[in-house]
Design goal:
5-stranded mixed sheet; single chain; about 350 residues; alpha+beta
Length: about 350
């Protein structure tokens, strides 16, 4: 049987209660015992201390079951019930302790009137009220912690669902554009090229669809997937598509969201290469700048008309990428559009995370 860890105790509420309960009453017993030694109490008094701690341990444990029933009741009911329960328990405790003390120490209570037990129960009641306060305080703290964990878990699940939705949204969007391009090749009588495009499309989908949308990949892996996609597009555009790579070797182990560059490349192909008879040039850039990874897709196309934003009706992929980055990195990322004269430069800035070597 594996040993019980502190984390096990924290998660198991019943185990946590008995651990704290035992620890508290053990400390009380030690304090009473040390006090008896300091004041040189008789041996019978030491025995009565054991009865005192043991009975307090058992009686306060019974209060736990009453307080469970009180949990969630109106504050007025809780306060009045706790006071009553602590008073009754203190009286019972006092009777037990007095009987034990009188048994172990002869004539210990012979000079006290019978009603003195009510006054003697006040210190016991105070102690039990302190125990009750700790019980409700810890229980309330645990409840807040559980609610906080549930909120964080729900938030994480919602974020994961959002990221998956955004990531999977790329597939039908990409497929629509690619199948449309293949259909065009077939209509133009380029059946052989269309067949090659279908084969490369199949390879690209096998390479990407098995990826967990929440799992990041290395930049090297991302570029491999991007090359498969660009291989399809090169069949479509031929010599009209000119590719350049400017990749920092030190950036290749960096972790990035899967298919984060593909929609930006697709956007440049759609607006900078496809509309022009002469085609265009596409440049893929990756750089490490201190603690940040900078990725860029630059083209030499016509750019944007004045006053037009790229995210406004100009591309599902661009908006999708912006939302994915915000969901994954919060404020620790940027997606910027810069005029390259000619063309546009789409830049992504992310925190640099290095893949762990197996």
């Amino acid at each position: 049987m594996p040993p019980v860890t502190l984390d096990d105790v924290r998660r198991n509420r019943n185990l946590l209660f008995w651990a704290l309960h035992t620890l508290g009453w053990s400390a009380y017993l030690i304090a009473q015992f040390v006090g008896a030694l300091i004041y040189d109490r008789p041996a019978g008094y030491i025995k009565s201390i054991l009865i005192l701690a043991a009975s307090g341990f058992l009686l306060s444990a019974l209060l736990r079951y009453a307080y469970r029933w009180l949990w969630g009741r109106p504050p007025s009911v809780v306060i009045s019930s706790v006071l009553l329960a602590a008073w009754v328990t203190a009286l019972v405790w006092r009777v037990i302790v007095n009987s034990a003390t009188n048994h172990f120490i002869e004539d210990w209570l012979s000079k006290e009137p019978w009603y003195a037990i009510f006054m003697g129960a006040l210190p016991a009641m105070y102690l039990l009220l302190c125990w009750s306060g700790l019980y409700f305080g810890i229980k309330y703290y645990e409840t807040l912690q559980r609610e906080r964990e549930e909120v964080l878990k729900a938030s994480a699940l919602a974020q994961e669902a959002q990221v998956k939705m955004l990531r999977y949204q790329l597939n039908p969007h990409f497929l629509f554009n690619t199948l449309n391009a293949i259909s065009t090749l077939i209509l133009d009588g380029q059946g052989k090229v269309a067949n090659q495009a279908i084969g490369r499309l199949s390879e690209f989908l096998r390479h990407t669809l098995d990826q967990d949308p929440m799992k990041k990949v290395t930049l090297r892996h991302e570029l491999e997937a991007l090359n498969l996609y660009l291989g399809i597009e090169q069949l479509r555009f031929g010599d009209r598509l000119r590719l350049e790579y400017d990749i920092d070797e030190a950036a290749l182990p960096a972790l990035v969201p899967s298919l984060i560059l593909q929609p930006l490349v697709e956007n440049s192909l759609k607006y900078a290469v496809a509309p022009r008879e002469e085609g265009g040039r596409l440049r893929i850039i990756a750089r490490l700048e201190g603690p940040q990874l900078k990725l860029a897709v630059a083209d030499d196309g016509p750019g944007l008309p004045i006053g037009v934003n790229l995210g406004e009706g100009r591309g599902v992929g661009f908006r999708n990428t912006r939302e994915r980055l915000a969901a994954l990195y919060g404020d620790h990322q940027t997606l910027a559009v810069r005029f390259a004269r000619p063309g546009l430069r789409l830049e992504i800035t992310l925190p640099f995370e290095r893949a762990v070597q197996p």
